[in-house]
Specification:
heterodimer, A: about 400 residues, alpha+beta, 2 domains, six-stranded mixed beta barrel, 10 strands, B: about 220 residues, Rossmann fold, about 35% helix, binds adenosine-5'-triphosphate, binds magnesium ion, MacB_PCD (chain A), Multidrug ABC transporter substrate-binding protein (chain A), cell membrane (chain A), ABC3_permease_C (chain A)
Chain lengths: ~400, ~220
């Protein structure tokens, strides 16, 4: 105990005598830990954001999309390739265990005008079953119903955000008309906000819903870019997927379409994310190594400044490992100082960013960053400490 | 009385560039337990070199050193360090205190490197030595804040904290005025006389040497008397 308290005291005394040097040395590690922890926090936040968005959709969903699975997740499959028609929708509807089927036509980047205001959004045309598939909840008025499609009614359901942008307030919007590319639609309802957005990714609140029949003016081929379906239960997902595939293979070949469920999409997204995040963190980790080299440098200087002290300690009976520990503890402390302050700063930044960007620091980041900074202290401190420990007692004490 | 130290045909050589320099030539010395001796000789004659070898800080190029009959050349570095810790107390001309540690901490420093449990409290012992050497009130001062005489007394207290059998003092009065120097000498003599410690004082001052019972004269690395 006394031994450790002497070593720690000696280390702290040395730090306080060389405050500037101590701070600058720790700064290297601080920046390294800060950038690693921040990147991890942003990665985690983004991942969580995406999975939240998925959760806000209904459960047990199955997506039938053009293109093979790999192309699908990268988005390339959605362009070009095949489009589905009503025959395909019927095939899917006929499959046992398939509860809800919603053929979807989408038109992104539309300009909506009303009241002299305008706003861009994404038009989604489907049947009323889209309400279930996309888990739409009602805020005001009503959601799409069967009759909207049957009557080819030009009705539209919008988000609170769009209602406010175009009509200043939600209540004003009901019954009003929105013009989209020369076509007038009557606002019949407002769905509950899905939150999120602002990330450059797809903002769920920019979606507006109309019936397929009402969208035929934009969708002259009467074809759909995807079919969303919902299995009756989780256990049925795999079987339903298989049956849909078998049925559609009679019309298309394997490469032309894909049938995936939420878990698969989430898995692929996670995979891409993990790779991206690992690469970014690895790049940030280089700054940790640079910080470690800074510590090594300073420790070499410290050792050569204290050769006489080392000699005195050896003369008084310190073994070479006592000297090794002394300098190793100093370098680890330097590194951990940097680690702790880096972590603290990262916390502050994440706290400030929270409102703009989803980011959070998990326990693993904390343990990892402190662990890594101690390891850096050891790895880069061991060479100078070894040099100190290997000095011959007589050379050290005679050193001027 | 038994031999505490035996220096047996010890040579110490340095390479100075291409030239071989012999700092010690065939030294043979026996020191008995409880002796008070002086090593005297002109500057550069090899006194400190010899003292470092006796104190296990340095190793001879040839020849052997026996401590209480044991051949040191067979000891590992750790064992030698432990022996320095327990068996030897050094007092240097330049005091060699650690400036960032307080007086009390300096005196206690050897005890943190003790490899076995001490049967006394080193802090109590340090406080006792502080009192005995007239350093009361300086416990928490730093070495550069006290006089040379006081610093040397701290160094002696530090040398005593582990209850060593052997005290090695290299020019202990060299950096002191004659009054402080005499006090230090008196202290060292007292340790030998009252506590039966074996004390070796290195000096080039014949007056200092006269105070001891035995004088080892060296010149150019050789014992001449
Ligand atoms: N590491 C070394 N390398 C080369 N020469 C050395 C070394 N250490 C000591 N010497 C030489 O050995 C000789 C003896 O040195 P030592 O320090 O033992 O003398 P000393 O008798 O203690 O002198 P002083 O009274 O000045 O302290 C000197 O000439 C010194 O230069
Ligand atoms: Mg000398």
């Amino acid at each position: 105990m006394r031994y450790l308290s002497f070593i720690f005291k000696s280390a702290f005394l040395d730090f306080s005598r060389n405050k500037g040097r101590t701070i600058l040395t720790s700064l290297g590690i601080l920046i390294g830990v800060l950038s690693v922890v921040l990147l991890m926090a942003l990665g985690l936040g983004l991942k969580k954001y995406i999975s939240n968005q998925f959760d806000s959709l209904g459960a047990n969903l199955i997506y039938v999309m053009p293109g093979n699975e790999k192309a699908m997740t990268s988005g390339a499959g959605m362009m070009g390739g095949i489009k589905f028609d009503d025959k395909d929708v019927l095939r899917v509807k006929r499959i046992e265990g398939c509860e809800v089927v919603a053929p979807v036509f989408a038109k992104p980047g539309i300009e909506m005008e009303a009241n002299g205001n305008s706003e861009t959004g994404e038009l989604i045309a489907s049947t009323d079953e889209i309400n279930i598939v996309m888990n739409l909840q009602l805020e005001e008025g009503r959601l799409l119903e069967h009759r909207d499609n049957d009557k080819r009614a030009k009705t539209i359901v919008i988000s609170p955000k769009i209602a406010e942008k175009l009509f200043d307030n939600q209540r004003n919007a009901l019954g009003k008309t929105i013009t989209i590319e020369g076509q007038n639609f009557k606002v019949i309802g407002i769905y509950k906000s899905k939150g999120g957005g602002g990330l450059g990714g797809s903002d769920m609140d920019s979606h507006v819903f109309v019936s397929n029949a009402a969208a035929y003016v934009f969708n002259t081929e009467k074809k759909y870019f995807a079919i969303y379906a919902k299995a009756e239960s989780k256990d049925l997902i795999d079987r339903v997927k298989k049956d849909i595939k078998t049925s559609l293979l009679k019309r298309y070949d394997e490469k032309q379409f894909s049938v995936v469920d939420q878990a698969e999409i989430m898995g692929t997204i996670n995979q891409i994310f993990n790779v991206l995040n690992t690469v970014l963190v690895a790049i940030a980790a280089i700054s940790l190594v640079v910080g470690g080299i800074g510590i090594m440098n300073i420790m070499y200087v410290t050792v050569s400044e204290r050769i006489r002290e080392i000699g005195i300690r050896r003369a008084l009976g310190a073994q070479s490992k006592d000297i090794l520990y002394q300098f190793l503890i100093e370098s680890v402390l330097l590194s951990i100082f940097g680690g702790i302050f880096g972590l603290g700063l990262a916390y502050g930044i994440v706290y400030l960013l929270q409102s703009l960007f989803p980011a959070y620091i998990d326990l693993i980041s904390i343990i990892l960053s402190l662990g890594v900074s101690s390891v850096i202290g050891i790895v880069f401190g061991v060479f100078p400490a070894k040099k100190a420990a290997d000095l011959s007692p007589i050379d050290a004490i005679r050193y001027e | 009385m038994s031999d505490i130290i035996k220096v047996d045909k010890v040579w110490k050589e340095y390479m100075m560039g291409d030239v071989l320099f012999q700092a010690l030539k065939d030294i043979n010395i026996l020191v008995k337990e409880g002796e008070l001796s002086a090593i005297v000789g002109p500057s550069g004659s090899g006194k400190s070199t010899l003292m470092h070898i006796i104190g296990l800080l340095d190793k001879p190029t040839r020849g052997k050193v026996f401590i209480q009959g044991k051949d040191i050349s067979t000891f590992t570095d750790n064992k030698i360090s432990t022996l320095r810790n327990e068996f030897v107390g050094f007092v240097f001309q330049q005091f060699n205190l650690i400036n960032k540690l307080t007086i009390l901490e300096n005196i206690m420093l050897p005890s943190i490197y003790a490899r076995r449990k001490l049967n006394y409290d080193p802090k109590e012992k340090a406080l006792y030595l502080i009192k005995r050497f007239g350093l009361v009130g300086k416990e928490n001062s730093y070495p550069n804040k006290i006089s040379g005489g006081q610093q040397q007394r701290v160094a002696i207290a530090r040398a005593l904290i582990m209850n060593p059998k052997l005290i090695l003092a290299d020019e202990p009065t060299g950096n002191l005025d004659s009054k402080s120097g005499n006090e230090i000498l008196k202290l060292l003599k007292e340790l030998n006389h009252k506590e039966k410690m074996t004390v070796i004082i290195v000096t080039h001052d014949q007056l200092v040497a006269k105070e001891t019972k035995r004088i080892i004269q060296i010149r150019d690395g050789e014992v001449v008397a």
